[in-house]
Amino acid sequence: MQLFLDTANIDHIRHGVELGVVTGVTTNPSLVSREGKVIYRDLVREICSIVPGPVSTEVLGQDASQMVVEAREIAKWAENIVVKIPASLEGVKATSVLTKENIKVNFTLCFSLNQAVLAAAAGATFISPFVGRLDDIGEDGMRVVIDIVQFLSYYRLPTQVIAASIRHTQHCVMAAKAGAHIATIPYRVLLQMIQHPLTDTGIRRFTDDWRKVMGDEGIVEAFTIPKDDQGNSSR
Ligand code: G3P
Question: 132 in ligand 1 pocket by Cβ < 6 Å?
């Protein structure tokens, strides 16, 4: 499962990419507006220059013709742009037009298998089922991810599933088990994924055991290349 960051925050994106584990980014109008009153195109272009893979950027229009106009413009902003189109009937129409023009679409705000079936038929590159928002209303968000993954694999369709609206690390575990191609996660969740108390105590115990015998300088000395009497390094 690939990891995308679900944010428009440049510092967070830089850090995720530096870690070598973040291969894409998803944004939406709410996430972009959290960064203040920015110039949309400039911010997205900066994100695209940092991230090695796809950067999803959402249209604001609600009818198909407006979505298509905006998507064509967004598609010019960078090579690695993917246009996010909402899962409405107008969105299906826009997706069909855009995919024929080889513009990559991330079919977003997806809450059901039926919406995903339409997205795949329209040629979407990605489908984003929103797990957390379904959980919020008492439904099983991950069930929708499982069903979409199964459907795409059964019919050998190329569309990829981005498990979105991820709220916590258990969602990451479940998305990986469900076979989601990608999970797009908030920066906070990325940082939490590595945490385990047994890792922390394990690191502390290894260091303490070593120090007890080798002394405080022991770790530095362990990696010092010994020199012979003439001062030449032995390796
Ligand atoms: O990728 C979709 C995501 O941004 C929505 O997350 O937490 O607002 O439901 P959330």
Answer: yes
